[in-house]
Amino acid sequence: MRQLKNIDKYRSNINIIVCGLFQSRQIKLQKLTADQKKRLKKRLVQSILSWYKHNKRDLPWRKTHDPYKIWISEIMLQQTRVEQVIPYYYRFLDKFPSINVLASSNLDDVLKMWEGMGYYRRARYLLEAAKIIAERHKSKIPSKYEILATLPGFGPYTCGSVLSIAYNLPYPAIDGNVIRLMSRLFKIESDITRIATKRTIEKTVVNLIPANKASAFSQALMDMGASVCKSVRPKCNICCCQKFCRAYNEMPNPEILPKKTKKIRNAHVHIAAGIVRNRNTVLISKRPENVILGGLWEFPGGKKERNESLDAACVRELKSKVGISAKIIKPFISIKHHYSHYSVTIHFFCCSYLSGRLNKSTAKWVKIDELEMHAFSKVHKQVAMKIRDGGC
Ligand code: SF4
Questions:
Q1: Ligand 1 and 225: CB distance under 6 A
Q2: What was the pLDDT predicted at 333?
Q3: Number of CB atoms found within 10 A of residue 266's CB
Q4: Least confident of 26-30, 53-57, 342-346
Q5: Which atom of ligand 1 sits closest to the CA of residue 240?
Q6: Residue 228 beta carbon below 6 angstroms from any ligand 1 atom
Q7: H-type helices in 186-273, by residue range?
Q8: Of 236, 256, 276, which one is at a domain's C-terminal end?
Q9: Are strands 325-338 and 301-303 parallel, antiparallel or unpaired?
């Protein structure tokens, strides 16, 4: 976001934005006066704001100007659908109603409130950032980009959304919906995973942000992308931007934009995990904080090695990860799960404890009815529920 430091420079450069609009209406750009360009840009922005005024989604975080609540909602909305976020948003704010309450909480409590939403790194960053804001910024979320960007979890999108929505400052908040809308509106045909394309979109949005209306405009772009300019079957026939839209006016099907290189998924990984019972308790261990799903509890296990059977892998992993010997009783359940760059199948085995002492402070024996008090990843939570219901 180097260019955001020179935001005024970009805001004054209206050629980038109007160029596309005039081309779509077969008017030669060089024949337009600066005033004409300005007026066209104004009409587009007004159309979007007017549409938003009458069609904005009724969402809980739209009813507040509290930067803390807006920050929480924006973090939750990254990678998670709106409908899923709403109950989490209410529960989270009920438990942590202010930055100070969040900052004085422990990671286990925060992860527990996040349980099931995935991408747990977001929760860890929230807690880390809240502690810094409470200690160094008098519990107030900074309104300067340069300061905000130094906080854990504050990437360009989070900075842009908090600054624009909560503080009404002219910073772009560019999520997938906005990228799609901009790509089509301005017929941006280059690969959106490229940095140069991202910069073009960013500049385009910055150029459009109307003075003193950054908050409404940011949310308007997000809502238009989510409910009108959808990835499949965009509603061009009711779109307020139809007459300005280059993809609509110049392409047989606007849906082909944005263009994106397909991700190559890495190999599938098989993991063996043990549900080790010892009288009326079961063994769980906590994942290290610096790995994926860090800080969450799980039934211990690890990757199967080449030419190794799954049950042998389970026994070996239990010995090496938590220091105990266990005997496999029977296979319990296998669950497949996709992450962004790879997929796994976790094979759970019912095991009985044989010998050995736990070699980690992060592993412990818990009663079955205590499982619910711990934060698990989605897959392990599913297994914990099955154990509670009498499985294994
Ligand atoms: S006209 Fe269609 S493609 Fe263009 S912005 Fe509107 S919904 Fe998207």
A1: no
A2: 96
A3: 10
A4: 26-30
A5: 6
A6: yes
A7: 195-208, 214-227, 246-250
A8: 256
A9: unpaired
Number of domains in the chain: 2
Catalytic residue annotation: 74
Instruction: Enumerate the β-bridge partners of residue 376.
Output: 297
What does pLDDT average to over the chain? Answer: 91
Please indicate, yes or no, whether residues 119 and 224 belong to a single structural domain of this protein: yes
C-beta of 51 in contact with ligand 1 (< 6 A): no
Can you give the three-state secondary structure of 98-130, one letter per residue? CHHHHHCCCHHHHHHHHCCCCCCHHHHHHHHHH
Between the CA of 183 and the centroid of ligand 1 the distance, in Å, is 10
* pLDDT single digits (tens) 314-323: 999 999 999 9
Full domain range(s) for residue 310: 268-388
Question: Can you give the CATH number for the domain in which 330 is found?
Answer: 3.90.79.10
Residue at 24 is within a domain: yes
Contact 259, 184 (CB under 8 A): no
Domain boundary among 256, 279, 313: 256
Pocket flag, ligand 1, residue 242 (CB < 6 Å): yes
Question: Which residue has the CA at smallest separation from atom 8 of ligand 1?
Answer: 229
**Partners of 346 in the β-ladder:** 271, 335
User: Residue 278, SS3?
Assistant: strand
In a domain, 71, yes or no: yes
pLDDT, tens only, 231-287? 999 999 999 999 999 999 999 999 999 999 877 767 899 999 999 999 889 999 999
For residue 56, give the CATH number of its domain.
1.10.340.30
Q: Which residues of 289-328 are buried (b: 16+ CB within 10 A; e: fewer)?
A: eeeebebbbbbbbeebeeeeebbebbbbbbeebbebebeb
Confidence of residue 18 (pLDDT cuts 50, 70, 90): low
Q: Does residue 279 contact residue 211 with C-beta atoms inside 8 Å? A: no
Span from the CA of 255 to the centroid of ligand 1 (angstroms): 9
Indicate if the pLDDT at residue 27 is higher than 70. no
Round to whole Å and give the CA distance between 337 and 14: 46
Residues 233 and 281 in one domain: no
